Amino acid sequence: MDISTSEKSTSVDFEVYHNIIVVEAYVNDKWSKFIVDTGASVSLLDFNQSKKYNFTYSIDTDKRLTGFGGRSRLMKTSEVSFAMKGGPEARRFNFSASDLSGLNSILSQSQQRVLGILGNDFLQSHGAIIDYQKKKLLIASIE
Question: Are 92 and 80 contacting, i.e. CB atoms less than 8 angstroms apart?
């Protein structure tokens, strides 16, 4: 299937900062930025920004996050409406949550701040394709 011409597909522009793909999106109708991370197994929101973006979180007893910073407990979110900027209308998506302040500290050197990470759970469930030459994230499935 040529996803660029599919009626149910959408194309979202992205920017690259130090080889990191960043897309714009809306969470609960508020503008935000996300890193697209093909190496992340789960999509995350920064729980430090929960009040600003009006979402709640609680401990997820079934999941732990392992990364370069070690292991930590994951949180699960509720009340999250998500839409890609320039994409289709908002849909509910089950994000996990964690402390992303360290990541935002690194990104602040490029005057960037993100709300979260779009990981493989999001990318696979939406049939995403990254077109590096055109700097577009193609989403095949939005339902």
Answer: yes
The string of pLDDT tens digits covering residues 56-109 is 999 876 766 655 455 566 888 988 999 988 776 778 888 999 888 888 887 777
Q: What is the pTM (predicted TM-score) of this model?
A: 0.84
Backbone angles phi, psi at 93, to 5 degrees: -140, 140
Count of Cβ atoms closer than 10 Å to residue 73 Cβ: 11
H/E stretch holding 4 = none
Give residue 123's domain range.
3-139
Distance between alpha carbon 62 and the CA centroid of its chain, in Å?
21
- For the chain, how many structural domains are there in total? 1
CATH number of the domain encompassing residue 106: 2.40.70.10
